[in-house]
Amino acid sequence: MSEITRETFDQVMVPNYAPAKMIPVRGEGSRVWDQNGQEYIDLVGGIAVNGLGHANSLLVEALKNQADKLWHVSNVLTNEPALEAAQKLCDLTFADKVYFCNSGAEANEAALKLARKWAFDNYGAHKNEIIATYNSFHGRTLFTVTAGGQAKYREGFEPVPGGISHVNYNDLSALEAAISDNTCAVLVEPIQGEGGVHPATEEFLEGARQLCDKYNALLIFDEIQTGVGRTGHLYAYQGYDVIPDVLTSAKALGGGFPIGAMLTTEDKAKSLGIGTHGSTYGGNPLGCAVVSKVLDEVSKPETLEQVKKTSDTIVTKLTELGEKFGLFQEIRHGGLLIGCELTDKYHGRAKDFVIEGHNQGVMLHVAGANVIRLLPALNISDAELTDAFERIEKTFAKIAKAVNG
Ligand SMILES: *Cc1c(COP(=O)(O)O)cnc(C)c1O
After folding, report:
1. Most informative mutation of 225, 230, 246, 373 for ligand 1 (most atoms within 8 A of CB)
2. DSSP output for 232-247
3. Model confidence pTM above 0.90
4. Ligand 1, atom 10: nearest CA belongs to which residue?
5. Is 222 noted as a catalytic residue in this protein?
6. Strand 218-222 and strand 246-249: pairing?
7. Which residue among 88, 117, 251, 268 is the active-site one?
């Protein structure tokens, strides 16, 4: 076979992504090395996935141990790692029941199907409407791009599933105007991640809870990006005075092993009876063995404490550098989900920071064209952060110079 390079991507991959020029080959903690041996500090973590960093020794051990025993059995049989992981999720959250799948979109798909089925079983076919929020992101299946509040992700893919409407995020009166007895679910991200890092107000989430109670609709929290320690709580809802009926988790749940989960209560779970839904890989022993270890580590009070401390350190430093170079009009965050909104002068340039960051040896991410997004590992070390900020300062200086001359 010929040499594998970035050009190979253009030759053999469907062109739905535009990956960076460099190809990473190895990672350790929050450091990553590319094919040429250049080192990067990773502040993206595979988009909120590598919550415990790269090649975490505890996760590697859990995966290798399981790999020697049993890889896959399908759901014709159950398996010990899945039961153990589900038990832990129930112990650590509001949930009584867990459904495992393989991605975030699938977790949301399951949540929306559960809402429809639960409403159908208990109230009848008329109660099928789903309310989501503009600017939200819920995945790329046809149902989830439709629930997502960004038209660009569904344009050209129509016809899409019906019965879904949107209200402005954090606009409680709009939600109140939209909800009715025909509503089966309200779907919300506690912090809009892809949409630009916008945290929900307490008023909005508490109000949504009350409206869902009043109209017998399920409140679904999409915690695919905010979950598994990201905000300094195991799940973001635990920092609010609101308990959802359904919660979806993925991304950091497997620390890099692809897995998703839908969590709900016993009463709601009844509507997904035998044969109503399923997945061949869902609850795969390899993935679930890793999930158990991830949950053990992330739920430790010291891990969650560190998230809050590291978040303060990063936000302070970004504020300082942002002021120095006149870059940001606002920095929004929930724990280690951090979004820096660029000033007008830099609008449209978020991607430039990612590209220059790679030149300087630091990995940054975007949320749209005007927001630089950081989602570092929860356990990023002081030494890694020090290196990261040296490189970020160089990145900012270079771009400021290019723009200001
Ligand atoms: C990433 C993400 C998804 C989709 O997850 P996939 O694993 O890519 O399907 C859904 N919702 C939110 C909030 C996300 O951040």
Report:
1. 225
2. SSSSGGGGTT---SEE
3. yes
4. 138
5. yes
6. parallel
7. 251
Query: Which H/E stretch holds residue 111?
Result: helix 104-122
Q: Is the CB of 104 under 6 A from ligand 1?
A: yes
Q: Is 143 a catalytic residue?
A: no
Element (H, E) at 362: strand 362-363
d(CA 377, CA 44): 8
105 pocket-lining for ligand 1 (C-beta < 6 Å): yes
Nearest atom of ligand 1 to the alpha carbon of 194: 15
Q: Is the CB of 103 under 6 A from ligand 1?
A: yes
pLDDT in tens, the chain (405 residues): 679 999 999 999 999 999 999 999 999 999 999 999 999 999 999 999 999 999 999 999 999 999 999 999 999 999 999 999 999 999 999 999 999 999 999 999 999 999 999 999 999 999 999 999 999 999 999 999 999 999 999 999 999 999 999 999 999 999 999 999 999 999 999 999 999 999 999 999 999 999 999 999 999 999 999 999 999 999 999 999 999 999 999 999 999 999 999 999 999 999 999 999 999 999 999 999 999 999 999 999 999 999 999 999 999 999 999 999 999 999 999 999 999 999 999 999 999 999 999 999 999 999 999 999 999 999 999 999 999 999 999 999 999 999 998
